[in-house]
Amino acid sequence: MLINTGIIEFKKMDNEYGRLTPVEALKDIPFEIKRVYYITNVPYNVTRGFHSHRNLEQVLVCLNGSVKIRVKTPFEEDIVELRDPAKGLYIGNMIWREMFEFSEHSVLLVLASEYYNEDDYLRTYDEYHKEAVEYFKVSQK
Ligand code: TYD
């Protein structure tokens, strides 16, 4: 996996009535959840994201359908396909992300560690690259 990312497997409570997947803050995901949002109605040929966050941590869960997530640093990248509602993609600080190939009726749930804060975004790849090169140089020492 790419640095500052990971796959989290949630508990699956299966019985003849179906599946229930519990997700608890600080137990199943490594932060306190301050915000939840979900992305729906994305045409298949649209790519979203194209940004990074300085401090925000997130866990992405595809509740229905499938979606691909490109996660990258200035040095490496990975593509993760989410299609299992019992798996989450953790994305930590300073990871550039792009979400694409949303299937029809897909629902992407995002659990976030902070309230919405536009100042935390790195919105252009240039700006991201400059800060991320420094960030990963220091954190890999
Ligand atoms: P944005 O982060 O650009 O979405 P994506 O990266 O998936 O393309 O957010 C889209 C719009 O929604 C933008 O105007 C900011 C707004 N927004 C909120 O108001 N609150 C939120 O929690 C988020 C994530 C976005």
Gyration radius, to the nearest Å? 15 Å
Using the alpha-carbon principal axes, give the shape.
globular
Distance N to C terminus: 19 Å
Helix content estimate:
10-25%
Number of E strands: 12
Protein model, in words:
This protein is mainly beta and 141 residues long. The protein has one helix spanning 125-139, and strands at 5-9, 13-15, 18-20, 35-39, 48-53, 58-64, 67-72, 77-82, 87-91, 96-100, 107-112, 121-122. The chain has a five-stranded antiparallel beta sheet with strand order 1-9-6-11-4, with no helix packed on it. A five-stranded antiparallel beta sheet has the order 8-7-10-5-12. A two-stranded antiparallel sheet has the order 2-3. The two termini are 19 Å apart. The relative contact order is 0.27. The model has no long low-confidence stretch (mean pLDDT 97). Bound molecules: thymidine-5'-diphosphate. Thymidine-5'-diphosphate is lined by residues 35, 37, 39, 48-49, 51, 116.
What attributes does this structure have?
141 residues; five-stranded antiparallel sheet; 1 helix; binds thymidine-5'-diphosphate
Describe the structure concisely for a colleague.
It contains 1 helix and 12 strands. It has 141 residues and is mainly β. The relative contact order is 0.27.
Topology diagram in text:
Layout: E1 5-9, E2 13-15, E3 18-20, E4 35-39, E5 48-53, E6 58-64, E7 67-72, E8 77-82, E9 87-91, E10 96-100, E11 107-112, E12 121-122, H1 125-139
Antiparallel strand pairs: 1-9, 2-3, 4-11, 5-10, 5-12, 6-9, 6-11, 7-8, 7-10
The structure holds thymidine-5'-diphosphate (TYD).
